Structures are given as C-alpha cells and as structure tokens.
Amino acid sequence: MANIKIACVVLMCMVVVGAPIAQAAITCGQVVSGLTPCLSYLQSGGAVPGECCNGVKGLVASAQSTADKQVACNCLKSVAASTTFNSGYAASLPGKCGVNLPYKISTSTNCNTIKF
What we know:
The chain is an all-alpha fold. It is built from six helices and no strands. Pfam families: Tryp_alpha_amyl.
C-alpha cells in the first residue's frame, strides 16, 4: 500500500516539476528516488539504513541553488503530507545522516522562504 502511495507521489511530482521552476536542476522524482531507502525509518524509526543516508547526502549535494532547494523542499513537503511518515523521524533524518538542511522536513515548512 505504501509503495502505491509513493508511486502516486512520484507521478504527481513529475507532473508538477514538468513546469519550468526557476531553472531547478533537481526533480521531485530524484528526491523521491533518493529517499526510497528511507521509507522504513520514516514510518517506523529504528536504525537508519546506510543506503538511506547515501540518498540523503546525494540529494543535499545535488540541490545547490535556491531553486533546487525549493523544489526538494516542496517535494518533501508533498510526500510527507501524502504518506504515513512520522514527522519526528522525518525531522531527525538529516541529522542522523550527518547533513544540514536549511529547512525542517515538515508539512508546515514555507519552502518559498528558502534562500541559497
């Protein structure tokens, strides 16, 4: 069931990202793909898989511009709102993987305020 939700979110993000967004180089599909190994942690907690942190670190490295950061933030916000993520686990994920995000992974984050 969760895989169906993720597939729907990926499809939705592909449609949304298909429109030009200030020359962003990262897509919502890339964000979702990078975080797929994190699904078990985001839903149930426990140990963070190494593949998950590799995906998180790759996404942080890929999202360098303001537009990239805003696309990634909006994608994470959409995914968090449409799946059964635990908001505490989502918020703690960057720290557990040793990266910093300029925003909190939350459905209440205003992604438009993120600046490079």
